[in-house]
Amino acid sequence: MTGGAGFIGSEYVRQLLARPDATDSVTVLDALTYSGVEANLEPVRDHPGFSFHRGDTTAATSATPRPWTR
Ligand SMILES: NC(=O)c1ccc[n+]([C@@H]2O[C@H](COP(=O)([O-])OP(=O)(O)OC[C@H]3O[C@@H](n4cnc5c(N)ncnc54)[C@H](O)[C@@H]3O)[C@@H](O)[C@H]2O)c1
Fold first, then answer.
1. Ligand 1, closest atom to CA 40?
2. Structural domain for 22, as ranges
């Protein structure tokens, strides 16, 4: 899910993982621009199927796993 830390994307991710028949996993790729907010994904950060990568879709090969910061 690109842009998954944004307003719409994060709501989509939260809803996907909250479903009783939840999708197995959701991987978010987000550049965390001015509008990307990690806190938007706080409710799912510990979900076993959730992972987050900071990266820019225009340079996707540079995406690297990024641990959560508090
Ligand atoms: N409280 C509110 O009502 C509220 C809050 C925010 C936004 N909005 C509205 O929502 C709409 C926008 O929502 P949205 O979710 O489409 O946009 P957004 O700007 O909220 O999210 C875009 C996401 O994409 C990421 N991103 C941008 N360029 C990227 C790139 N090259 N590679 C990887 N990630 C990248 C950003 O970091 C961000 O997380 C607008 O209509 C806005 O007015 C409403």
1. 39
2. 7-65
